[in-house]
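Hey L., structure's done. Input below.
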Amino acid sequence: MSRINFIEVRSELGAGTRGSGLGVEALKVACLQKHFDFWNQYQTYIKAVQDSNGALFQKNDFKFAKYISYIYSHLQHVSLALNHSLIVHKKLPIVLAADHSSAYGTIAGVKSAYPQKRLGVVWIDAHADLHSPFSTPSGNMHGMPLAMAMQVSHRESAVNIPQQDEEHYWNAILDIGTHLPKILPQDLIFVSLRSTEEPEDRYINEQKIRNISTEEVRRHGVEAALTSIKEQLKDCDIVYVSFDVDSIDPIFSRGTGTPEAGGLTPQEAVALNEGLASWDKLVAWEVAEINPLLDTENQMALYAADVVLAVVQAAELRLEQAQLATERV
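Output:
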């Protein structure tokens, strides 16, 4: 019996460029191309979260939090799916997501499942995703999931004035799962962060949030990065890892909505995520932002497939060993 649930999340309402909603299918095609058989093994353990991508054909009523009314409902569905995977099914959720706004639903679901546990987050991403409707330069909500998780609204330094309904939905989103912040700043680590705006920089500097840069990974190696992550998050009870494929350098593939130079190699991404999946604190893992419409020959999905396979194999081995150890006691 599998110890893993796959949760497919195709919502791309939070992205500014269309196409990430096709990322899950692109990933499956990549697995076929690579002759990976694990999809067959997990057919019984796949949950598809209902999306509202049809809203993209409707008029968007919100300037600073585009489609926020639909995203609010979507995040509730994601949170519930994560909660059920962890509490009802008692399986490790592997989330295959479209745009990165869904990650807040994942975090909220994990926290609702374990409200008394201290949650650490490893955010492997070119971007900080720490904007709110009060600070966003674009209104795209895939730039906001960590601000949601830490309830950072930037009201004191607002550059935007959201309309009343936008603020209403924003406040409602912050309460999904639990009414309190889901994570503490000291329990967040960025990896390969390299594209931020001033409100994000200010918050990161004020809170002294750690970023393990691409240069640091390359200079000291993946094992040293893993050691640093585990040391910083040693006081956390549980850990969630979010892997945005734009952490990979666009020299390898531009199959994502917001590519940024200076990223990881595909091999570094595999080794880093594999090492984190072997960690006994990991309770959820997510991949996001594959966009095959921006790609050539599905290359980003092919790289992501290698990462997913490594994560699944490492997690299954860890969970199997933990079960055997329990049975021997």
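The domain at 4-328 is CATH 3.40.800.10 (Arginase; Chain A). The mean pLDDT is 96.

-- N.
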